[in-house]
Design goal:
This protein is an alpha+beta fold and 119 residues long. The protein has one domain. The protein is 17% helix and 27% strand. The chain is built from two helices and six strands, in the order αββββββα. A four-stranded antiparallel sheet has the order 1-6-5-4, with no helix packed on it. The protein has a two-stranded antiparallel sheet with strand order 2-3. The longest helix has 11 residues. The protein is elongated.
Length: 119
C-alpha cells in the first residue's frame, strides 16, 4: 500500500499519521463462492401465478431454511444469447454446501435453502 501521493500528503501534514493507511479485518475475508449455471430465461411459480424471469435483470433469492443459516442466491444478469446465466452462492468455508460432492446432494441442499425456487 505504498503511494507517493499518500507519502507526500503525510509529509505536508507534518507526519501526524492522518495519511497512513490502516488495516482492518474484513467480514468478507475467507468467503467461498459457488457458481451455478442456469437457463437464461425460465418461469417460477408465484402466488399470482407463473412469472418469467428476464435474463437481463438481477435477482436475489432469499434462503428459507427452517434452521441454520439462510443463504441468498444471486442471479447475475446476462444478455441471454448463449442460453445460460449464473447464480452465485457465497458462504463461509464451514458451510455444509462444501461437503456436497454430487448433484443429488446439492438438490437436497437447494430444496432446504430455497424451497420456493426451482433448481
Amino acid at each position: 500500500m505504498q503511494s507517493a501521493v499518500r507519502a507526500q500528503l503525510e509529509a505536508w501534514d507534518g507526519h501526524k499519521g492522518r495519511f497512513v493507511p490502516e488495516q482492518f479485518d474484513s467480514p468478507a475475508a475467507g468467503l467461498r463462492y459457488k457458481v451455478l449455471t442456469l437457463p437464461s430465461d425460465f418461469v417460477v411459480d408465484t402466488p399470482d401465478g407463473e412469472a418469467a424471469l428476464s435474463p437481463r435483470v438481477m435477482y436475489a433469492v432469499r434462503g428459507a431454511a427452517p434452521s441454520g443459516r439462510r443463504h441468498k442466491l444471486g442471479l447475475i444478469p446476462s444478455r441471454g444469447e448463449h442460453g445460460t446465466r449464473t447464480a452465485n452462492l457465497i458462504t463461509k468455508p464451514g458451510d455444509s454446501v462444501w461437503d456436497i460432492s454430487d448433484v443429488e446432494g446439492f438438490r437436497k441442499y437447494a430444496a432446504r435453502q430455497w424451497p420456493h425456487f426451482p433448481l
